[in-house]
Design a protein that fits this description.
By secondary structure, the chain is α/β, with parallel strands linked by helices. It is built from eight helices and seven strands. Helix 4 links the parallel strand 4 and strand 5. 43% of the residues are buried.
Amino acid sequence: MLKGKSALVTGSTSGIGLAIARAMAAQGANVTLNGFGDAAAIEKERGGIEKEFGVKAIYSAADMTKPEEIADMVKASEKTFGSLDVLVNNAGIQHVAPIEEFPIEKWNQIIAINLSAAFHAVRAAIPGMKARKWGRIISTASAHSLVASPFKVAYVSAKHGIAGLTKTVALEVATFGITCNCISPGYVWTPLVERQIPDTMKARNMTAEQVKRDVLLAAQPTKEFVTVDEVASLAVYLCSDAAKAITGANLSIDGGWTAE
């Protein structure tokens, strides 16, 4: 479906981003990986994608808090592959604290990585997509783009911003063969979530299953985690011709969380 096209996925060295990058490669797209992590592990993933799917894959260490590095990453993808057809804004971080104790530097960092980075990437990618009359822009939002939780003021603000950015861009590019949508997952089973369980067990005197059911999945009626592959499959669908009329949408994949 994406043979001959290229995809850039930010925050794609693990978790949701890596699953999306692999899903795009499985459809024939050349991919640009981005994110932090162990260099050897990243190279293993990059090489593995090339070997498994028969595509080209490159890695960019661009810092998502630096607009010039984001723009350079987009240019590098275009230069390497001849075009940038699919942009997935997935990079994100989290910090939890009451608003009066929320560190200003954490607010600035979360807004920069979770919201402003998407603006800078879209701004850099749009000219090429317009010239080719085809493009797919997808951002990983969150159930927190639709509802709030206490102690997550920066994250919730950024994800609500992603929803607004998505709608605005969709309207601006609607006649250029470009769609712009965001995906809003609930709790997704990732290594990041898994690593939180032991500390939560200790702090709350709970078993692992109690933490999953009564803490992490308390808001999800299905009482099941969303999987990274489910999110990736939705992203792939949004790149298909069948989804060309879907634009400006915020698509929930949250086990019913935001239905309540």
